């Protein structure tokens, strides 16, 4: 998490003109990270300006200053008396006004963050669902997915947080770009259709762009890296740890979008991919024998209404494998653990 005290200290130094080159670079990087950071920077600058004015007003000695004026301008004593009364009244009126305005800005900035309720939708493993966000954006959620989003989108941008896999049909709004937060990475879109897979257990994030334009942003040590632009039918696979990515042009849309229609498609997928996707689809733990993983077998198949046992039997037709399904055991809370599937070489 970012250190707000550190950021606010940099903003104060910027206001007073005391930033050095390194601090300036850090502040600029933070401001450019999200549109919300720019808004927060502007609000803090406004508050600092109001605070500076209030401090200056406290230093004003109206009585003393007007006495000096009286000595120089004796002929217009009545005018000076009026001016004195005016400044007293102005000080009484302006000071609360400035305080109120400063507090209003502060409260408005605070309320922007909390006035909209944060909601979340989840799908259990083996289940898929669809939701519609307040702006009309449609989201299909795959098995074992959680989407966090505001009840109403406010401000200059729209943002949701994704854990798992989802397909988005984003309502077009160029003035309010749509962001998908992937915990250290973000996908930016205006109006487009795309699929993102971001499961916690995976080493990679994959994004397939069906239509429109999206950009993938990565953040390292609080700084935004150069965004990667995708074209239609591009698939980007980004390694979370190594911060390296590969882009596949003209990727097979059926493989990455078929799950929306209730189909599980494998196309030259290795044992690791098959184990993860089968496990999520059927809510089971799939374990491949080491001999199979080392042989680097690949699988091609499409499943629609098949059961787990049907899917395993069909896979065994194209690959020399055998399998054993172990039923889940009952837990202390009366629920059952996942089924376990052991896959070995024939």
Descriptors for this entry?
single chain; 346 residues; alpha+beta; Jelly Rolls; Phage tail protein beta-alpha-beta fold; 3 domains; 3-stranded mixed sheet; 38% helix; elongated
What report would you give on this structure?
Strand 4 and strand 5 (158-169) form a beta hairpin. Helices cover 38% and strands 31% of the residues. The two termini are 50 Å apart. It is elongated. It has 346 residues and is of the alpha+beta class. The protein folds into three domains: 34-114; 118-254, Jelly Rolls (Sandwich); 263-345, 3-Layer(bab) Sandwich (Phage tail protein beta-alpha-beta fold). Strands 1, 2, 3, 4, 5, 6, 7, 8, 9, 10, 11, 12, 13 and 14 form a 14-stranded mixed β-sheet that branches. Strands 16-19-18 form a three-stranded mixed β-sheet. It is built from nine helices and 19 strands.
**What is the straight-line distance between the termini?**
50 Å
Shape descriptor reads elongated
Q: For the CA atoms, what is the radius of gyration?
A: 30 Å
What helical percentage do the residues reach? 25-40%
Following the backbone from N to C, one meets helices and strands in this order, namely HHHHHEEEEEEEEEEEEEEHEHEHEHEE
CATH architecture of the largest domain: Sandwich
Please provide the count of β strands: 19
At CATH level 3, the topology of the largest domain is Jelly Rolls
- Give the quaternary arrangement of the chains: single chain
User: What CATH first level of the largest domain would be assigned?
Assistant: Mainly Beta
Please give the count of helices.
9
Q: Are there runs of 5+ residues with pLDDT below 50, and where?
A: 108-114
Question: What's the mean pLDDT score?
Answer: 80
| Whole-number count of domains | 3
Proportion in β-strands: 25-35%
Structural class category: alpha+beta
**Mind describing the biggest β-sheet?**
14 strands, mixed
């Amino acid at each position: 998490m970012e250190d707000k005290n550190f950021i606010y200290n940099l903003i104060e130094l910027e206001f007073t003109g005391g930033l050095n080159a390194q601090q300036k670079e850090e502040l600029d990087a933070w401001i450019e990270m999200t549109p919300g950071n720019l808004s927060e920077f502007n609000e803090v600058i406004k508050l600092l300006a109001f605070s500076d004015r209030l401090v200056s007003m406290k230093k004003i000695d109206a009585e003393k200053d007007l006495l000096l004026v009286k000595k120089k301008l004796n002929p217009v004593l009545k005018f000076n008396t009026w001016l004195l009364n005016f400044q007293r009244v102005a000080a009484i009126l302006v000071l609360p006004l400035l305080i109120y305005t400063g507090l209003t800005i502060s409260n408005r900035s605070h309320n922007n963050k909390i006035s909209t309720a944060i909601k979340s939708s989840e799908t259990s493993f083996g289940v898929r669902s669809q939701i519609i966000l307040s702006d009309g954006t449609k989201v299909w959620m795959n098995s074992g997915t959680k989407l966090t989003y505001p009840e109403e989108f406010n401000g200059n941008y729209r943002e949701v947080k994704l854990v798992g896999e989802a397909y988005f049909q984003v309502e077009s709004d160029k003035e309010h770009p749509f962001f998908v937060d992937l915990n250290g990475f973000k996908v930016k879109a205006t109006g487009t259709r795309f699929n993102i897979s971001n499961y916690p257990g995976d080493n990679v994030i994959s994004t397939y762009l069906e239509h429109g334009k999206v950009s993938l942003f990565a953040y390292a040590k609080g700084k935004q890296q150069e965004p990667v632009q995708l074209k239609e039918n591009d698939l980007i696979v980004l390694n979370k740890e190594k911060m390296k990515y590969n882009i596949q042009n003209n990727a097979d849309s059926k493989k990455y979008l078929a799950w929306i229609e209730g189909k599980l498609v494998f196309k030259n997928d290795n044992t690791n991919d098959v184990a993860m996707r089968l496990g999520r689809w059927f809510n089971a733990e799939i374990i491949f024998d080491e001999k199979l993983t080392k042989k680097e077998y690949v699988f091609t198949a499409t499943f629609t209404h098949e059961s787990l046992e049907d899917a395993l039997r069909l896979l065994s037709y194209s690959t020399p494998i055998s399998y054993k399904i172990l039923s889940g055991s009952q837990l202390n809370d009366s629920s059952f653990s996942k089924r376990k599937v052991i896959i070995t070489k024939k």
